[in-house]
Write a structure and sequence with these properties.
This is MFS transporter. By secondary structure, this protein is an all-alpha fold. It folds into 2 domains: 167 residues, Growth Hormone, Chain: A; 195 residues, Up-down Bundle (Growth Hormone, Chain: A), CATH 1.20.1250. It is built from 17 helices and no strands. The longest helix is centred in the middle third of the chain and has 32 residues.
Length: 431
């Protein structure tokens, strides 16, 4: 029995997962397609500044793009659940890229109303690649062990977008000009989206049916509380960015404003790699609360007002647990949301984190004259998230042990893909 199980169980190593058909293509394409999320704000600021506009107007445009993109995610997720990924994301990415390309032709000077309208529209129609990718994994990787690995890789790599994206936009704008940065941003969005949307799993994906007893109703008390808790997690991230800028000003080290968030994001990626390598005890709900507790404890050493070097090292401690929180949050959503509306539910989770992050940035900015309070805000956000999760635990359900997927294999999402959805020989073990 043991020999047979060993022979038939698919390997869940990183090499095996990334070598599985379509995995590297979908993951890599989504990361490329989402680079504009990190590039557009920087590109807009540099473009407006180079054209003689004010930093206040540039900041307003950057905030408008992010806000419009975030608030429109659930609607785009709902449309994707109804019409499929291709019919929603293809026109979205074409229009989004067209808007970015059009900005240099409009001009940064003297056309503030037109520029504002185009930037806002571009934000609204950003393609929902992240939520769409999450919806694809059960069909691409039916094995739960491999799916757990790729989901951790997926979540952990998101933070790298906000390191690579701003750096790339800054380099293009300074080495060439801000127009080139905007055009390159549009091109990367098109290229990444094309890689994902032309793949068979994306072209043929349809949501699973709810079943005879399913109501299709999305928002339950458990999901509302979960999204509220994750907004607290996002609040900690937003407050951290302002705290990092304050640390840079206090110690007269401008690089700290970028190094501290980079240390956090890098640690988050590494934490995801460690987490995905083994199966951990407890249900997803238990793991979500445990990792949220560790996330809170990770912020506490920063309250001691450490020096620059110590702060960089300490910023990595809470970062270790961010990927774990978001990954388990997605698993809880998967267990609570109706099968026909999973993409929309994933989009609500993404929006909740982003909204909390914006709130954390805004409040920390308003309190920037009080350095001691700034150091407390990330921990306050983490504490709020943990408190809500503890209160919500009975409504999050008993949970499931990682590695088990709640949807029946005969659902539309898993089996009726046309044969050409997965053409060509398998690339990895077990296929």
């Amino acid at each position: 029995m043991t020999a047979r199980s060993t022979a038939t169980a698919p390997s869940a190593t990183y090499g095996a997962v990334l070598g599985s058909r379509y995995v590297a293509r979908l993951l890599g394409g989504t990361l490329i397609g989402r680079l504009p999320n990190g590039m557009v704000p920087v590109s807009l600021v540099l473009w407006i500044s180079a054209g003689g506009g004010s930093l206040a107007f540039a900041g307003l445009l950057a905030a408008l793009y992010g806000l419009a993109s975030g608030l429109s995610q659930p609607l785009k997720g709902r449309l994707m659940d109804k019409y499929g990924q291709t019919r929603v994301s293809v026109p979205a990415v074409l229009l989004n890229s067209s808007c970015l390309v059009a900005l240099p032709w409009i001009g940064a000077a003297g056309q503030s109303a037109a520029v504002t309208a185009v930037v806002g529209f571009a934000g609204v129609i950003t393609p929902p690649l992240e939520a769409g990718l999450r919806a694809l994994w059960p069909a691409v990787l039916p094995d739960a062990g491999r799916r757990r690995v790729v989901q951790a890789l997926d979540t952990g790599s998101q933070g790298l977008l906000y390191i690579v994206g701003p750096l790339l936009a800054s380099w293009l704008a300074t080495a060439h000009n801000p127009d080139i940065a905007l055009w390159a941003t549009a091109a990367l969005g098109l290229a990444g989206s094309a890689i994902v949307l032309s793949a068979g799993p994306s072209r043929y994906w349809r949501p699973a049916a709810d079943g005879p007893s399913g109501t299709g109703r999305l928002m339950s008390a458990g999901l509302v509380l979960l999204f509220t808790a994750l907004a607290g997690t996002g609040f900690a991230l937003g407050a951290m960015n302002v705290w990092a800028a304050d640390m840079a000003a206090t110690h007269q080290m401008a690089t700290l404003s970028g190094v501290l968030p980079a240390a956090f994001s890098t640690s988050s990626f590494l934490g995801g790699l460690v987490y995905a390598r083994r199966t951990w005890p407890g249900t997803t709900t238990t793991q979500l609360i445990t990792t949220s507790t560790l996330f809170l404890l990770g912020w506490l050493p920063l309250l001691a007002d450490p020096g620059p070097r110590a702060a960089v090292a300490l910023a990595g401690i809470p970062g270790l647990f961010l990927t774990l929180i978001i990954t388990n949050g997605f698993h809880v959503v998967d267990a609570l949301a109706p099968a026909s509306r999973t993409t929309e539910a994933y989009a609500w989770l993404i929006l909740s984190v982003g909204t909390g992050q914006a709130a954390g940035t805004a409040l920390a900015g308003a309190l920037s004259d009080s350095p001691q309070i700034l150091a407390v805000l990330p921990a306050a956000g983490a504490a709020t998230a943990l408190t809500v999760l503890i209160v919500a635990r009975p409504k999050l359900g008993p949970g499931r042990r990682l590695g088990r997927h709640r949807r029946p294999r005969r659902s539309r999402q898993h089996t009726p893909l046309p044969h050409d959805a997965f053409p060509a020989p398998a690339h990895g073990p077990g296929h």
